[in-house]
Amino acid sequence: MDLIGIYLKEAIEEGVCPVCRILEKHENNVIGEILYEHVLDPEVDRSFKKSMGLCTYHAWKLKEIAYANPLYGALGVSMLYERVLSHYITSLKKGDAGEEECPLCLLSREKERNTIESIATRFDELFEVYKNSSSIFCKRHFEMLYNYLRERDLPKAEKLKEVQIKKLESIDEGLEKFISKFDYRSKEAPTSREAGSPILAIYALRGSLIGTNLQKMCREERRRLFRGGIFGD
Ligand SMILES: [Zn+2]
Ligand SMILES: [Zn+2]
């Protein structure tokens, strides 16, 4: 297994959706880097202005990370957003306050595609790890991986789907048991796995609260992603 394979294996062993987990870390790292060393970077400045201060989600995420870390604090946010605000005022006066897509959304989607591709190309090494772990690909990332595999190797895609269904059924079973334990006739307390099943169910359906998961993939984008577009054939 190569270094990327080991990194992916570790993400799978951490539980929940490994792709979400990787993207979450990536998002936090990129924001940390901006705040730590790129507040004055002209390139960062340009992309902040072009997007009018990132998308709503990433703007608040940046604020949250900055304010939670005394190393960053409010100064970086003030410097970044003072320049964006001035740019907005000037644009508004000119009557052209349009905006382009958030650079962090673009970056996260690129990381997402690379991660899916990396898992797919190491499927044989990672499949058993996934099967035997408590991880569950969220709906979005399962679909991305499944579609990627289906285009190239149908039996692998079907193998993944089979395991995915088993994992989902096991969460559902946990939920049912958890609900039944609320019955006054029930004498048993819920196990920790059962108690965690509502969270797992939300996770399996919607993934982590990260930028990429807030964007709906339209039909066109799906086609572009999986029919030889960005991934290539
Ligand atoms: Zn996910
Ligand atoms: Zn964004």
Description:
The chain has helices at residues 3-13, 18-37, 42-50, 56-68, 73-94, 103-121, 123-132, 139-152, 154-180, 192-195, 197-206, 219-226. With 233 residues, it is mostly helical. It folds into 2 domains: 18-102, no CATH class; 104-226, no CATH class. α6 crosses α8 (139-152), α8 packs antiparallel against α9 (154-180) and α9 packs antiparallel against α11. The protein binds zinc ion (2 copies). One zinc ion (ZN) binds next to α4 and α6.
User: How many strand segments?
Assistant: 0
Number of helices, counting only DSSP H or I runs of 4 residues or more: 12
Give me the secondary-structure category. Answer: mainly alpha
Q: What is the element string, with H for helices and E for strands?
A: HHHHHHHHHHHH
Gyration radius (Cα, Å) is: 21 Å
The hetero compounds bound to this protein are: zinc ion
Give the domain tally: 2
Shape: globular
User: Segments where pLDDT lies below 50 for 5+ residues?
Assistant: 226-233
Largest sheet: none
**In what range is the share of β-strand residues?**
under 5%
Cα distance, first to last residue? 24 Å
Rounded mean pLDDT is 91
Query: What is the share of helical residues?
Result: over 70%
